[in-house]
Write the structure tokens for this entry.
Amino acid sequence: MYQIKELADLAGVTARTLRYYHQIGLLIPHSINESGHRFYSQKEVKDLQQILFLKELSFTLEETKELMLSENNNRLTFFTEQHKALLEKQSHLENVIKLIEKTIDEEKGKLIMTDTERFEAFKNKQIKDNREKYGEEIISKYGEQAVKDSEKKFSALSKEDLTVNMKEIEEKMFALLRNNIECPSEEAFTIYNLHKEWLSYSLDLTPEIHLSLVDMYLADPRFTAYYDEKVETGTTQKLRDIVYFYAK
């Protein structure tokens, strides 16, 4: 058993912090004696370790409390998942460090980087982020191989494709979507072709896949938010209706 000051010293926090954790129901002492002294068992020691890990990972106190008090809080699962996530982050940082070192060497005149090399680390990060956000839905619809093919195609994109072409296409599409579009119309057909062209940079697009994607835009709040925030509420529905008219 640890008294409050002993545990605070062991963990590198203050006794005041532990009292606050007790007050908000985040870390309850194992027992409190008649004098009001708090005592912490091995269970609370492990809980505090997890709480401090969550703090290190930028979880808010509210998020930490929700996780710690959840019936699904399994320490082995938690640490296994965080270990995997940290290794992936470490790998990305190592790639960024290598890119910085190459850039320094180029500035010193020791080598010449290709344009593909300049953006490699950032594209890999984008692929990883997309996997984390949307991977489960997309794999369930199109299969692992289709997703890998798409990621391979994205990795091969040139600097101009990433920083100019795709951005210009998307901005043109957003500008048109801000108008009061009727379907069929020349504007609607242009929007359809722009969206198809934009998707084709990273997908082997078919009409069936195109239709399925815009269905997913509406079904998944994350996709809906992307288009609605870029233009206005209802844009995702508008885009879906246009694609359905021309792709079918």
